[in-house]
Amino acid sequence: xxxxxxxxxxxxxxxxxxxxxxxxxxxxxxxxxxxxxxxxxxxxxxxxxxxxxxxxxxxxxxxxxxxxxxxxxxxxxxxxxxxxxxxxxxxxxxxxxxxxxxxxxxxxxxxxxxxxxxxxxxxxxxxxxxxxxxxxxxxxxxxxxxxxxxxxxxxxxxxxxxxxxxxxxxxxxxxxxxxxxxxxxxxxxxxxxxxxxxxxxxxxxxxxxxxxxxxxxxxxxxxxxxxxxxxxxxxxxxxxxxxxxxxxxxxxxxxxxxxxxxxxxxxxxxxxxxxxxxxxxxxxxxxxxxxxxxxxxxxxxxxxxxxxxxxxxxxxxxxxxxxxxxxxxxxxxxxxxxxxxxxxxxxxxxxxxxxxxxxxxxxxxxxxxxxxxxxxxxxxxxxxxxxxxxxxxxxxxxxxxxxxxxxxxxxxxxxxxxxxxxxxxxxxxxxxxxxxxxxxxxxxxxx
Length: 447
Ligand code: PEP
Ligand code: MN
What we know:
The protein is globular, with a radius of gyration of 21 Å. The mean pLDDT is 93. It has helices at 26-38, 45-59, 80-101, 146-149, 154-175, 198-219, 240-245, 276-282, 298-308, 328-341, 369-385, 414-417, 431-446, and strands at 64-69, 105-109, 123-126, 129-132, 232-233, 247-250, 255-258, 265-266, 288-292, 317-321, 347-350, 357-359, 365-367, 392-396. It is an alpha/beta fold. α8 (276-282) links the parallel β8 and β9. α9 crosses α10 and α10 runs parallel beside α11 (369-385). Bound molecules: phosphoenolpyruvate and manganese (II) ion. Phosphoenolpyruvate (PEP) binds next to loops.
């Protein structure tokens, strides 16, 4: 890994930066950036490089990536119960995947910094009033008032603190044995006992516990590795003043790292080749993802691979396709071929959420479970047919019993959405639907 000599953390400023707020007070913004640049980072370069190796293994098909969390975190949801439930569902899904795929799973949360959102419109009109759109808690507040929607740079400092609290709690839970397979009861969420999948899940936990006990009996020693789980963080590195302030030179590694997260990604709306985000991402040593939509041309995907990973370094680049259940069969083959034609090493991940968003007649933004499942299944098939492989999944989910996506084992209907729709941005899989997706990945693999 060589640092880019021609690159600086602020170099993105010479390029067009889409989806950025317009701050009313430039001096206040500069003061916040100075403050953030002095605050301790949230992750270390050693962790980032360890994750890069895990991703390199997933690229070779030797492990599987599970990435998930809220569409947008909110400051008010930085709360112990919500954080631990989200961690639990991700751990439970990973257990289902490890057991069913017979491979290690790399666990990555969409959290501890997922506070900035791209929006399709800069303005929102309601009852004749037009205000700036809500862009995530890093930037403004969701309430539909003029004061709430003014971008405030101090929110970045608050978001950094909330991210640190989230990380701190996740690290403490994991270090304290929360993910210890000797205690699968920690892995339970109360209301899953009512779930149609609960019997299947409990059987699987029992069989994992039995296997561990068997290994320990044979070796006469406790199986140490089962009580330690690695967990990594990711977010869309959209708000460039924040990302720049958390980008640090690490002399020991001779490189620049974004130390606000392990695994930043570029969103679909900001992946222009000559844009500010690609310019920023090109210089950091983190493993990075790019969201790929059906509008990406073959030439564009090739040039993105070359720009972001000129040395074809293993583990560096992840392509997260989010094509939609109706387009994935037609569009994915050409993308896979384009990448293969230049010999680019990538991890292919499917985001089956963002290509399947629709609005209901009662005004909710939703996604159908069957479309999510179908896009994932078709993605596995297309990669296999093209001699490639799907190495991971990227999901919007929560550990709560929300009703935001339609369908699933309880067959949630449009009327159910009224009951527990809590997302301020995109609809998430609830606890049961998430577990069901993990099980469907295993079924697909075994079929
Ligand atoms: C997201 O991941 O929340 C998002 C906005 O996705 P995309 O960039 O793929 O639309
Ligand atoms: Mn989203």
